[in-house]
Design brief:
This protein has 105 residues and is mostly helical. It has three helices and no strands. It has one domain.
Length: 105
């Protein structure tokens, strides 16, 4: 099966051939691992940038929510729309419905 010269070369030639094949395979594995590391670094960098952008958006939304909840703003907003406390007679109390033993009204 082997080349005639390889059959007569002796055991050191087979060892040298095995070492060369091993080195090629090891080099291929190193290239594959380094490529994967580089890909993961790019992904991580992209995710960090996205996280920073989203954190900034969260801060903006928190400030906006705080401003919208401010009592002064709500009072001004209700005055603009003519809203205020209810006048006497505006609140009508309805009778409590009777509840059946099964829980349905």
């Amino acid at each position: 099966m082997l080349n005639v010269r390889l059959q007569h070369a002796g055991p050191w030639m087979r060892a040298l051939l095995a070492a060369a094949v091993g080195m090629v395979l090891a080099a291929g594995a190193v290239v594959a691992v380094r490529t994967e590391i580089t890909t993961l670094r790019y992904s991580l960098s992209s995710l960090r940038a996205q996280e920073a952008k989203l954190r900034g958006r969260v801060e903006i939304l928190q400030v906006e929510a705080t401003a919208l909840r401010a009592p002064e703003r709500i009072r001004a907003h209700t005055r603009e729309r003519g809203l205020g406390p209810p006048e006497p007679g505006q609140i009508v109390r309805l009778p409590q419905p009777e509840v059946a033993p099964g829980g349905a009204p």
